[in-house]
User: Fold this.
Amino acid sequence: MNRSIRTLYLALAAGFAVLVLMLGYWQVIAAGDLDERADNPYHLAKQRLVDRGRIISADKVILAESIAYREKGTKYYRRYYPQGSLAAQVVGYATPAQGATGLEQHYNRYLAGSYGTGAILDRLRQETKDGADIRLTLDTRVQKTAEALLAGRRGAVVAIQPATGEVLALASSPGFDLNQVASDFASIRTQEGAPLLNRGTGGLYPPGSTFKVVTATAALDSGTWSPGSTFDDKGVYVVDGKSIYNSGKTKYGLHNLTDALTFSINTTFAQIGDQLGGVKLGRVMNRFGFARPTEIDLPRGEVAVSGRYRAGKILPNDQRDEDSARIAIGQENLQVTPLQMAMVAGAVANGGRMMRPYLVRRAITRDGVVVKQQHPEEIDSVASAYVASEVGRMMQNVVSEGTGTRSGLAGLSGAGKTGTAETGDPNRNQAWFIGYAPAGNPEVAVAVVIEDTSGTGGTEAAPIAGEVMRTVLSIDPVQGEPRG
Assistant:
């Protein structure tokens, strides 16, 4: 063979090989990522041909399904949401015009049938299999209770199972009707209160005194303090020339650490934070998951990072020069999601072990084959079982004697912590409650936040948390798949 011809042949062969490899990459390997992009016009048009799988709650209620219709002789499908606005931000929507959000986006490759070895051939042939159903951990009975209690307010409720991380309810208010997205998305986007925002995972709030659960854990973990350690409150604690006061400038005098959590004594927790310092307090914050993305099966852009912010950027937890006294009482630019604080309560309830929260148990095909299964997974050990038990006992006191008494569970013991964070308006607050029940064998951990209220965590958030926990505890786990 002529040398120049051989060189040309090898060059053409190499170019063809590269072309095949690139085609294979974009058609097969990267196809899933491209499909999940909300701005992919080919995917959006193709959606109408796909019989997407159903989204089904733990108690077997259909939250999303596809309905067939014909247009110019071609069979198409459109998404329908039988429960309307129920769990709207969690379920999300999938429309050719608006793209996808929530579970509809995160589990798109299963719902659209673009998974497994068979899907590779389907992609090459430009065909799509029927989508798989996804079965949730979320229970509509708990979700409906949470949403009803939030009605007319802005806020969020998160309920999880401490031992597994299963999310039982994730409610955000205000909400919207998922079926309206395709017909009148503009009115949803312009509605007051940002209904598209999932406040449970994407809303950031100052935690107020609920953060004292983290500080109490750090205090006991250090070995310097115990629940019975005594303090003498003078009504003020001064750090770097700046004063920290108790609510109402109350003076508590001699008391112990359990009393400090029960009555939410700022000066005591500020003193503890000051003595711990940013490094020691920061290490415990790291274990609880602050300053890192929360691992939950939702699109990353819908899950905010909890921690300390400066100029819009998240800061590391263990810096020596930080004002650890104010961090310890939930101030100093702390911003947290309700999901993060439910995980804090859940870790204490679960003997110090923090579990990864998840919303989907499994994806299953039309003929009953499980193509994805999720199991409980421990993220970190935030404290020893002993420390978690002692913090839990202190939180029980908050419910039985202190600021969280309105969350009483009608004869069932519970544990919790209230929080009332300032908003800049002296007459308006962000009201919090985190906790779990029953105290002896926890089945549910909750976080509740109510925005822009004149009330406190004890009057506004705690009663909602109590009712949500009562709903969970009243469900027979044999019926459906509500818990575990």
Observations:
- Confidence is low (pLDDT under 50) at residues 119-126.
- The first helix runs from residue 3 to 29.
- The first strand starts at residue 55 and ends at 56.
